[in-house]
Specification:
heterotrimer; A alpha/beta (about 250); B alpha/beta (about 450); C alpha/beta (about 500); B: about 450 residues; alpha/beta; 2 domains; ten-stranded mixed β-sheet; nine-stranded mixed β-sheet; about 25% helix; C: about 500 residues; six-stranded parallel barrel; 12 helices; about 35% strand
Chain lengths: ~250, ~450, ~500
Amino acid sequence: MTALLDIRGLKAEIDGRQILNGLDLAVNKGEIHAIMGPNGAGKSTLSYVLSGKPGYEITGGEVFFNGEDLLAMDPDERAAKGLFLAFQYPLEIPGVATLTFLRTALNAQRKKRGEEELSSPDVLKRVRELAKQLSIDPEMLKRPLNVGFSGGEKKRNETLQMALLEPKLCVLDETDSGLDIDALRIVADGVNRLRAADRGMIVITHYQRLLDYIVPDVVHVLAAGRIVKTGGKDLALELEATGYAQYQSEAA
Amino acid sequence: MNAEVRSVKTAAEIGFADLFAAARESLPGGDKIEAVRRDAFDRFAAQGLPHSRTEAWRYTDLRRLLRDAKPLAPRSDAAARSVAREAGAVFAGLGLRRLLIVDGAFAPELSDLAGLEPGVVVRATVEALGADEMVLPLDMAGGDPVAALNTALAADGVMITVAPGVVVERPIHLVFVTTGGTPAATFTRSRLELGSGAVLTLVETHEGPDQSDYQVNVALQVDVGDRARLDHVKITGEGAAALHISTLEASTGAGASYRDFGFTIGGAVVRNQLFVKLAGEGAIADVYQGSLLAGRQHADTTLVVDHVAAGSQSREVFKAVVDDEARAVFQGRITVQPGAQQTDARMMARALLLSDEAVANCKPELEIFADDVQCGHGTTTGALDDQLKFYLMARGIPEKEAEALLIQAFVGEVIDAVARDDLREALTQVMLNWLKERD
Amino acid sequence: MAAVQETIEQVRGIDVDQYRYGFETLIESDKAPKGLSEETVKFISEKKNEPAWMLQWRLEAYRRWLTMTEPTWARVDYPRIDFQDLYYYAAPKPKKTVSSLDEIDPEILKTYEKLGIPLREVAMLEGVEPKPGEEDPARRKIAVDAVFDSVSVATTFKAELKKAGVIFMPISEAIREHPELVQKYLGSVVPTSDNFYATLNSAVFSDGSFVYVPPGVRCPMELSTYFRINERNTGQFERTLIIADKGAYVSYLEGCTAPQRDENQLHAAVVELVALDDAEIKYSTVQNWYPGNSEGKGGIYNFVTKRGDCRGANSKISWTQVETGSAITWKYPSCILRGDNSRGEFYSIAISNGYQQVDSGTKMIHLGKNTTSRIISKGIAAGKSQNTYRGLVTAHRKALGARNFTACDSLLIGDKCGAHTVPYIEAKNSSATFEHEATTSKISEDVLFYCIQRGLSQEEAVGLVVNGFVKDVLQQLPMEFAVEAQKLISISLEGSVG
């Protein structure tokens, strides 16, 4: 079986600094992989490189997404193919209503895939249902995207977008940052509802706490731009107890 | 609005032409300098005095405000010099190094030249001109007709250089004073060069008698070297009937810091024009200007900040308090040249009108040719906040005092920009005296 | 304007060079001899069967114009215009007097079809989501007075408007049929001596719209004029005069397109608005004239004088403009706030791309007591264009309690363009309260990436962010115009990112 995501020997740098240093990772459909690691290990870089953010230079390795060369695709093409990045710091867009943004994104992706665009009422209906599940006030949908939203609201909004766009692979970058325990639970419930046999997830986090709510199948330790250890969900607990110090020295 | 052909000259324009023709021979400098002067005068003559349709002078119509050209001030006599000794009292007791310019001429015998710090050189401009040094041409202000008049007629002033790396602790105070007698005109040109990494505080005061409608045209060129720092404080406190036109050109090197504070309190007609060029990468300029105006005073502050190099930052704050029938003018332009990416520039202009006849004209401009910039400006114009005033009065503070408190808070923001405590306190005292006179 | 929207959809995706209204109608036209002289002025006046007083008015303006010189203060740069090398009058040759649509030259009707102007009765608006609380747009009506080159070819909805007492007709007709109104108001807001281009317009204007809304009447529909320049080397000099009598209300929409040309074409219109006591006029413009090609060749010179006079107490005039076209735009829709408690508004979106030059803004002249004004300006510069906001806010001695709020924001796309802000703020009494703020910035790369990660293309992302940036102004437009404007904005920024 072809892996959903297959990263082989990925090397990447930004502003001449090498961040990813020969990273290997394979994620199959239906699996949730957690990537843990100390600050500066390259966790966010991995999410940006996968999603194609400008400014990062790939200096080695390959990435296949459903067997296709991911690195050859434009960022919007990657999104249309089903790669979704939940941002650690979602951006604000003044003047653009959340609902407008959701509709524009959904239809842009559908168009690229050759699917029929959905009418505004249809989108509205879907969004309302999903918003309810995520305890998102429908009024929020009329507000400009993320403008004046609390940290929790922004993360719920990311989860809402993920649910609406139905991606094949979700990359959650530090989704737990800036969330209190109630907000974390709501977001985690939302993510868990998206667990599916044909969908994979990569959950990037510094703390084990998130993994109490989103239970991973596989846990990786990322240090100095490489996966240095892989294990089951117990590895996260172990890390919580011992910290990252040993991996940092190992990697160095 | 319409380009027009000028045929009729005003009395003042004819007066300046006569002045120049008569003085040309006796002005300091050899042939090269004379050519510069002639060229500058031609530029003035071609444009004439700026007026309301001269965009850069829109609100200060010199054809109307400058009726006649006064004769050039004669060499001052002993009586005048004794008056001059008392000048610059605002900063008395702060131990500043006083350099006196009396009736347009540098007076070394009245100046405090003893024990100059190593690396600091002070000369009279007349000396540089006599040696045929090319100190007169202007850069950014070159096209301005009134600055051109200064180039044509400037006879003296002060030239200061500070060697690289020299940190001058004791501020230099340029005391410009016009003494009594017949109303006359003075044209001075001064220059300051700060070597790389040098640090200096330069203070300027301008004053003269209230009874005389004398005219002052002063220009200062400042070159702040790489990583050098200059704090410049200027008080325009001319006599009640005087006309004061000042042109400042400042250019900053990479990583340099230029901080300017100007306070306009005196003079019947005042124009302070500042041209600041952020020529080196990562340079910083802060320009803070305050005007306290009453009676029929007219004070115009016109500021051009030109971001030429990348990564430079500027802050411009202008505050005017305008009472009676006075008029405050602020024109500020931030220009970001192509390539001056990562410019961060903000300008704020606020006018407080204390009387129904007071006027504030404000023209803050942004002119931007680079895309990766953060620029903004804001202006507000209005009366004192009645609610705040009422609040203070309800606490038992009399009306005038309540107003004074609010005005103090309003102006305080610009004074706070002055780095040195002693200067800041002296400037605060200037403001308090102005408020006291208002009663 | 639903049909206009369709037109846009048809041409969406066309390269920026392929100006989508760039077709030309081949019909014979009736031109005045080239050049400008008293004879030209007389020719125009005669063609229009004008009364003697009108000819006199024109001739006075012409003589005045001879003494004037072109203004040079705006930040625009173009080769000198040879005013003797232009045609000042071009009318489609009429077969006879037009009394119904069937009699109009089918070529002309076809042109309008391409433009998407609904000459035939009600424009049924499709595909537009009604805003909550707003009436169903399908039931809204728009009356169109189409100006083809210099002559108004057809006016729809006359009957219904007539019932309400609203006069809506070509100004050439109004001069004959309502001379008392025209004489009273024409030139009362923009005097013949006002400025070089307005004076030129006064001498040679050929047609335009006239609106009079009687006291207490709320105009039952939006009024609309579509201007179109067709004839080669013809200056277009429309004259529009709108009067809202006491307590009246009218909303007027103006849309502009011109076919593609290599020669630059001059457009110098004058619009005068008069609002008497308690009256309100809302004037909306979507200007989409040919901006020139990607090398900066061709395009319209749009030198326009628009001014509203809030003559009565509690009157209100609101200008909304979306400027995406023209090689050069020089316009400052202004309000004279004469009546006590009157209000002026100016909402503007100005987009420049390619080699376009925009110098636009407003004047708010506060004369009456407790007058208020509001200015929201959004400038977007892309390509190699220059985009300047120039505005004046002034409160005179007697304008006690005058208030203004101004916000000018500029957005830069690319590093070859320029965005400039030149406000003039003049307070002549202490009770005036003016607030002004301006910002200039670029679109954040991070925001663009965020949109792209959600599947939008680079251009879609820019379009979305820009539409958000201009939203405050778009909301001021009547809804059908807003939809059109939104699409125009995206189209006019095509090719701006890469």
